[in-house]
Amino acid sequence: MRLLKVFFAFILLTSCNDNVEYSQYVSIPSGWDKTKPILFQLEQMDTITKKNLFVMIRNDEKYQFSNLFIITKLEQPNNEAIVDTLQYEMATPEGEWLGYGFSAVKESKLWYKENFKFPQKGKYTIKIEQAMRKIGENEGIELLDGITEVGLRIETAK
């Protein structure tokens, strides 16, 4: 009976991620340097099926802001690039983190591209850099504390 419960738990956990095609994280142990973008290499992406792309952020209590600005660059096989500047809310006005998790680290699944079709076969590179600044300052924050990991997740669109 116990073996049967373990089997069903395994099936349940693995079946929940059937639509996940790619999931990768990069650890940021000592702050996110604005001059060092996070890179994700994608090989031979399907050009027929629509995808949902997400930026995955894990932050801890050292993160000082209620939002997050990032710049993404999707480099295509033909050397063309799609650049987006994105803003995400990370906390409520009361200061509660919007991410999930039971410990001090919260994970946020942030929409990047919805129903996106990769236009051509070949190698893609996605670069993600932080673009945070303090209020009233023109220069960006050199080293952003509190972001512990940045990830990319690609799911088949439903």
UniProtKB/TrEMBL annotation:
This is Gliding motility lipoprotein GldH. Keywords: Lipoprotein. It comes from Capnocytophaga cynodegmi. InterPro entries: Motility-assoc_lipoprot_GldH.
